[in-house]
Give the backbone structure.
Amino acid sequence: MKIITSFIVPCCYCWQVIVLVIPALLLLPVVQSTFAATSSSSNKSNTSDGDDDDTIPTFHTQDEERKASDYANYFSAYADLYHQKIMLTDQHRMDAYYNAIMTNTHIFQNKVVMDVGSGSGILAVWAAKAGARRVYAVEYTDMARHARNVVKANGVEDIVTVIQDYEQECAATSDASNDDDDSSMSCKQRQELNNNRVVDIIISEWMGYFLLRESMLDSVIRARDMFLKPKSGILLPSHATMLIAPIMNKDDHHGVLKEYSEGMGDWHDYLTNAKERYGVDMSILTEEYEKEQRDYYLTSSHWVQLDDDTVLAPPIIVKTFDLAVCTLEDAKGVGLTEFSFDIIASSSSSSSSPEDGGAVVEQEISGLAGWFTVDFQSRTDEVGKEFGPKMMNPIHFTSSPEIGVTHWGQQAFYFSSAIPIQRNSKGEVKLNGTMEMIRSKENARLYDVKFRYTIAAAVGGSNNDVDPVEIVYRIP
């Protein structure tokens, strides 16, 4: 048994001291069979009726109920200006797209551009100002109404056409346009889109938490395959990369464990009260309640905004995407990928923290964290290198801790209990393992991530190895 720590915390308007005693690395059961069953689902080929669990209902089914559910669970939030503001005020995000477009105006001159998931329309406006001949801003939600107003207010309504639909229905939508509607397309514009692959540039801000959450990459790939010129067309961003690294994020990690412990304690207090005061035995629900708590606190990833010094070892790449050639199958997740980290302990097993007034802070591994990078650069595939435009000023963006605050933050996959970093003869802890990531069976916009890992540390001249641990996390 390992005592994690003790906490003095406010609860129900009083102060309590809570001590978490958790078997190190043994709190969570091995759930390989559950993940394997889900994974087998993700490898099925697409079917015409769209019943695959890992495909997006909006694109793959005629079931209006499933489409409506996809809209309610995913698209609808993007219709709110409050949600858009979170993204629009992310300066790192905005600077990356602005610089990618406005420092490479030569590739936009007299070109046809499609903005997939246009939102407020700001990328479409920039594309028009960069010299595009025609911009199609595709937005599925009622945010399209605001985008039209933004386009008009910035004097580019003769260049930018806002289409309220998803990219697969763009051409069909043009046939249903009302001539009295300011969203209608001219006959020339309709013919242009109906000729399909006439788009020179696709721009899109499609990235979700840990890159793939929300599965919007599907929309970009579909738009590419339907509308982008295959030889000379370019996507912005053009490349994407997923990375992971071990972290020490003690306060948040301990806080999560504390909340789990408190929740279970509150439940048992309730059971006693219900039995003594009301004469009802509710303990039959304990197993399901505990599962809910575990799913929420212990086997879900957590959004975090890490400081750069919380990263314990250089990150490693778990997957890269070339947007010019990646497939819908690629977008479904990450295949079995090995990782290995050498975590160097300090000269002692602890360090001094200025935030704690110089008090000694024990070093430990809280878990793993994931983030992404994207690049706006020239095509690197063989065809694109020959025929594609050259980005004279490539732009790199990262959501890593080193950049500071972004609305993406990072995803923390906390271990069931922290792993102490002890002084040892080699001064090194080895964290080795594998990672897989697949779409959730319950919601293809979400992902499950499986880590299987071992810890090895040399202590007193001998190796102390921990048996393999396997945990499946949901990215909520």
